[in-house]
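@here heads up, posting the sequence + SMILES for the zinc ion run so it's all in one place. Ping me if the SMILES looks off, I pulled it from an old spreadsheet.
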Amino acid sequence: MDFELFILGSSSATPSKGRYQSAQLLKIHTDFFMIDCGEAAQYQIGRYKLNHAKISHIFISHLHGDHFFGLVGLLSTMNLYGRKNPIYLYAPPGLDEIIQLQLKYSETILQFPIHYTTLDKNESEHILDHPLVDVYTIPLDHRIRCNGFLFKEKPKPFKIDKSKLPPDLSLLEIAQLKQGIDVVDDDGNSKARVEDICFKALKTRSYAYCSDTKINESYFPFIEGVDLLYHETTFLDELIDRANKTFHTTAKQAAELAKRANVGKLVIGHFSSRYYDTEPFIIEAGSIFEKTYLGVEGSSFVISDRIKDEENH
Ligand SMILES: [Zn+2]
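bot reply: prediction finished. Complex structure tokens:
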């Protein structure tokens, strides 16, 4: 089953030097989960031949324009293409009002419903219980209310190798094996063991999105051990004072955090438009945390569900 991240935008604040504002798509199986929706998001979706009709849920981290100004345009396009399926939208307070106002004065009536979930808590919330994935907010430390998001794949049932199945097992006992529980008889003797009968378990994958924020210990537990971490790196460490003042992070800081949190891979982005070249970011972060990648436009990151590391970039 697919678990793949597509980067649509890597710029902070303004489009610049071929980079666009924050937007990502996380593909889980056949569903697309959109994370932030900068101004060029729908253009980028077309450019990389992704399909906006498959977007089911949209998560907006905060209401700085570079993270949501593409939203009403995308919703309008979906409408023009005849969308009927609902959109589930998760965002800080105010976005519902902003969208309704834009639609009202453009006399646009969407032919599909939008279900809003307002994110107004200071603590992490479990905001989505989807058949394939659980989503939690990660409260961040920015100038205005800002949430990151943690996507945790649900454990998958064990697959049974039918050729190894003892003939005397009941349906209930088989169901028990699929849950990963060994079967024993009334006297406690083993009847069937998961490791003898089932194929190897598949990994449950996780992705944490952290933008925009200053480094803060409070969100460390949410990113610890994730397979893939996206963390903003607006500045290089030479501008750490500016990063602190504007509640942003440097490449060095993000890499130190990723290393300490023992994540599988670090993807960096939200680069300030002052930088023409993003290569110094990978040099700075990569020297501290080797598995760092530039989250530039058009890049994608696959997370494998095999227990052994067969991931490819
Ligand atoms: Zn911001």
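MO: The mean pLDDT is 92.
MO: One more: Residues 182 and 188 are 11 Å apart (CA to CA).
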